[in-house]
Amino acid sequence: MKHWRAALTIILLSTFASHVRSQEIKAITGATLIDGAGRAPVKDAVIIIEGARIKQAGAKNKIKIPKEAMVIDARGKFVVPGLADMHNHLLDGTLSRRPQALTNARRLLAFGVTTVFYPNANLQLLARLKQEAAVDNAPYPRVFSTGPIVTVKGGSLSPDFRSPETPDEARAVVKELKDAGVEAIKLGYDDNTWAMKTASPLMKTDVVAAVIAEAHQQGLKAFVHAPMLEQAKIVLRAGADGLMHGVIDRPVDGEFIALMKKNRAVYVSTLALFENVGDTAAWARRQAAYDERKLYPSSVYDFLSSPNAASFLNNAGFTKEHLPVLRANLKQVYSAGIPLVIGTDTGFPGVLLGVASHLEMLLHAEAGLKNDAIIRATTINAARMIGLEKDLGTVEAGKFADLLILDANPLDDIRNIKHIHRVVKGGAVFDPAELLD
Predict the structure, then answer these.
(1) Where are the beta strands (DSSP E) in 11-126?
(2) N or C: which end of the chain has fewer CB within 10 A?
(3) Strands (E), 189-262
(4) CB contact at 8 A, 324 and 65
């Protein structure tokens, strides 16, 4: 009897192990593959996923589906890489002070955002987020961050920042953040006059230079909040690796373009932020019209449409007047061959979670970018921004299986990015509706 029970246990365990292995191998079949690598779309494609990574992706006639694979029938649908929002604070944009980062991360995944770059993160919160999101099948995007912003005293609205006053202090701050496990440094160099009538102080240029130089010495990139042209050029001359906001006050010039190219810097325009600051009520109405799933109650949109919502932005008229400059600069930077990356500054009051990530893509289209360029800006360019292009950003063999199955073609209309059938992150398949429950 003991031998019989032992044999039965072995059979059951073997069957269970076989079932687990079969679930680890998935085959997405029948969709049109838009791989994000710049290749022509592949109709009737097959994507083989083993565990957390893509084993094969391409035309049906070139790929054999393993017999043990769980087949996901995606006929008539479209597969694209998972999206990235590379300026997202994991707040919901409603001025709520309740702890919400994990809940918001889960909701963001429902919008197809599988990668988040979180500039200006509290280090304790960041450690928890990274721990929770690191598991491949966790229902959260992958989280990368700078840790607290490095800026001058009085130069940040955030309660958590670092404010070195000398080059030596600057180097010590960068080393502290490096030891905490950040992927980059965020530097604030902005007098805020694009939105406020009273100028904020600016960090001394020798401290700016020390922050950027030490970041590079520590193997980190330095991204800068500097939406005014002359301030942006100062940080670029010091070697900055990218701008976390578009330039809004003046048209970019030849020196700016040359500096961006010299530094191989990225340009994160955050059009959604500036649209919101320029006319919070109009932006609220636009988000409300997009929010078909009613992620936010009507009371939120009513508040954002009221005069009280953005009363602290006492120079918003300047922002609104200069929105055409912002859009033209985006097109100019793109035409010059500088890599664009999608980011929203979600969490800023009025820039709403998930909704803004999609509308940012639409704003890029309205600024004159083609849909394939917009997809690259939110996929492979985002991965390159933080040096993870070997693992993320395209649907190719060897990369993490972070991808979306869409009901409509985003190359025809970028608004089709909202029609998400399934989100796949690290090989785990999620129903967007269940992520929002």
Answers:
(1) 25-29, 32-33, 45-50, 53-59, 70-73, 78-81, 83-85, 113-119
(2) N
(3) 221-225, 242-243
(4) no
pLDDT for the residue numbered 156: 60
User: pLDDT, tens digit, for every residue of 392-436?
Assistant: 999 999 999 999 999 999 999 999 999 999 999 999 999 999 999
- Total domains in the chain come to 2
Pairing of strands 266-268, 221-225: unpaired
Span 226-276, pLDDT tens digits: 999 999 999 999 999 999 999 999 999 999 999 999 999 999 999 999 999
Q: Which amino acid is at 219?
A: G
Tell me the CA end-to-end span of the chain in Å, nearest whole number.
49
Residue type, 22: S
Interatomic CA distance for residues 181 and 196, integer angstroms: 34
Q: Is 319 within 8 Å of 282 (Cβ atoms)?
A: no
Residues 416 and 79: their CA atoms lie apart, in Å, by 12
HEC assignment per residue over 323-384: HHHHHHHHHHHHHCCCCEECCCCECECCCCCCHHHHHHHHHHHHCCCCHHHHHHHCCHHHHH
What is the domain extent for residue 47?
Answer: 2-80+396-435
8 Å CB contact between 49 and 94: no
Task: Indicate which CATH number applies to the domain containing 122.
Answer: 3.20.20.140
Give the separation between CA 391 and CA 399, rounded to whole angstroms: 5
d(C-alpha 22, C-alpha 270), whole Å: 42
**pLDDT range class, residue 313, cuts 50, 70, 90:** confident
Q: Which amino acid is at 3?
A: H
